[in-house]
Amino acid sequence: MSTKTFIDQLGNSITIPFPPKRIISVVPSQTELLFHLGLDEEIVGITKFCIHPSHQFKSKTKVGGTKKLNLDLIQRLKPDLIVANKEENDKDQIESLQTQFPVWISDIQTIPDAIDMIHAIGKIISKSDFSEKLGVQLSKNFDNLASNQKVDQSKKVAYFIWRKPYMVAACDTFIDDILKRGGFENCFSNLKRYPEIEIADLKTVNPDAIFLSSEPYPFKEKHIEELKTACPNAIVKLVDGELFSWYGNRLLKTTHYLQQLQQELWHK
User: Fold this and answer.
1) Does the pLDDT value for residue 152 go beyond 80?
2) pTM recorded for the entire structure
3) Fold designation for 3-142
4) Torsion of CA 112, 118, 120, 123, to 10 degrees
């Protein structure tokens, strides 16, 4: 079998059998992407959070969680490629795996980063035709979304990802990029990454809307009231966290979802 060398999004060089035949993906959105691009038998391991597509989730070997991988099981599966992410996986565990296996790591904060990742993975798995078509479609969708943007109707939004303590998505995050592309102004864009905040901070930024994400914390209807009490004039809404933070083919659904949110907020 021939080998090829690729560069990941951190600049690391990895050499793998080409095309790879035993792949472990430890990032849910990239796992879904691999299946979307036509892989099935080649994927030998996924995490317990790689829930899409559901029929593949049921049948594939689980190698732990994104932050707590079962390294012994991964060793036994003998992958010739592991697909990981800088943010979603534990740095020490990934560095340990890098000493034994080729690990391709993504680093994604924007839509262009996501499209670059899709193109790169397409090349690695010998599915460039499919990945390039997907990238073109995503670019078109987000360009169309931008062209229909009504700048004077921008809404200030606080996007919550955690409770006890409260944590929000701030700048330098993929969620922040999605919010901006959806025509929303991130109330906490002056902060970095995923800061903890207090209710007093929320009152100070005075958002028009508060988005409670379905992941990583599973916000429910019962959590709406506690934030509505803090900001009675804000619209408090549960949102689909996968459509804000998954950066593979699920982005095909994101632009339509953002348009729906715009309509709901601007017509209330």
Assistant:
1) no
2) 0.94
3) Rossmann fold (3.40.50)
4) -150
